[in-house]
Design goal:
The protein is mostly helical and 297 residues long. It has 2 domains: 1-57, no CATH class; 59-294, Orthogonal Bundle (MetI-like fold). It is built from 15 helices and no strands. The protein has helices spanning 2-8, 21-24, 32-58, 63-71, 73-106, 112-119, 121-124, 127-138, 145-148, 159-184, 187-195, 200-228, 232-235, 248-257, 261-292. It is globular.
Amino acid sequence: MSSLSSVASPAAVLPGSPAGGKRAARRVLPGFHLTLGYTVLYLSLIVLIPISALFFKTFTLTLDQFWVAVTSPRVLASYRLTFGASLIAALVNLVFGMLVAWVLVRYTFPGKKLVDALVDLPFALPTAVAGISLTALLAGNGWLGQYLEPMGIKLAFTPAGVVIALIFVGLPFVVRTVQPVLEDAEKELEEAATSLGATRLQIFTKVILPHIMPALLTGFAMAFARAIGEYGSVIFIAGNMPMISEITPLIIIGKLEQYDYAGATAVAVVMLVLSFILLLVINALQAWQRRNAGAPA
């Protein structure tokens, strides 16, 4: 009888019971120390060691040499183009990405799944292919360029072409960040606001926008960060004219081709620090979004 009661006793088999606590605490993967060690080793090999090498190479320059390398007129012009075009592209994607997400969530129409799949095309398409396609489309002899240039609208091989390429690669970040938030939004709040006499503009600004604002800001920051480091889609349509349409990644490539490794790493360190700051901003926005949704940060 005692053996039967011990078998039937929940305390003998429940994970939280004192008798089987150590056995229930076993995990599918190896223990904490082993997995943590593997994680640190993997991150060190893939991320930390290359970044450390970048900083160590920069230390071969004196402070004056470093300052000259990262503040030359040509490099400063590339900063202005890279960050300015990235900011404009991210702002455009902030507006139109939200509209695309709204249409995909709130409306049903023929070909909706195809449109939804096309949003991810910049993720799957090689960036060089995107750059060549945009150049063939917007160049003076391209499908659209041949009609725009006679009207004085020149897009290819100008900063405007850089902005267009960055809009193309950054759109999915905003759409895919805002779309699930819109899907989880409570339509009952909008219906209640309508029943209380609120206009469409009031419903959007007072009910919908505050709910999706953290996701919008996160998508904006991700699109901005992606645009800063973009190279393949921009290099073909930019024209790469010094002081006019030359992006910072191209400056780095040019210094490497001239065997100026220290100068290239100096400019790369500036981009790395700015990208790290953007990463912190993105993480802060995502934590804010989780708190706003009621999930633990």
